[in-house]
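Table 4 source record.
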Amino acid sequence: MTPEITDILASFKSLKLEEMEKVKLMDRNDTKFVLPLSQVPALLQIMRDKYNVLEINSQRISPYSTVYLDTHDHMFFNQHITGRNGRVKIRYRNYLSTGITFLEIKKKTKKKRTVKWRTENTLSGDKFDECAVNFIKKHLEFDTDELKPVLVNSFKRITLSANDPPERITIDLDLAFSIPGGNEKNLPLIAIAELKCDGMASRSPFSLLAKELSLHPTGFSKYCIGNALLYDIPRINMLKPKLLLINRIENEYYGSLSA
């Protein structure tokens, strides 16, 4: 996080949490962009006149903590890296700015849209309570006894919104990953911008702004990347282009320090 980012965000018009209900977009198209942290100020500068920023308790950058669940053989991970239609993520996400934790299910449909369901719920150890079991079974034909926490992810998020057309852009910073009770990996030099919209991403004003900075859509799953960084599991090589991109951004940063 840099003071420059904080200063630019202070110049945006703000939105309250209840105003964001207009752009919840629980059924949407998602498009992600990977960029160096150093490029975030320039991105925010060109967004300032077109988007408002979410502010919660006087804060415009909100911390999140997520626990992802999967099977012992990483079934959901394998669904994602092979691009399977109907692929699923199940997670507990703590919105630290509000103190609320949701159990969330995200599913990619055959039409490449993202559908999300959630219910307020808290994970206790590695066991689901009855409400969580019923929620998962309502949306998926799945035995919850096969699920366990496999990855913890924390980050800080800037959320920006526009109503015409209705869309939401998130910029995630300070990404950190850890295995429950095990190793960890931080990515402080990487930022992930994500466009969430109802219509075609190519028609979004944000897509045009991204092109101004030569940003191109790049599939990037925090869940998959975290697994690849911390687990020795099959098919990690399928994520090699993404891992090389992360390495290139880091090498360019450290190279600039020594120049």
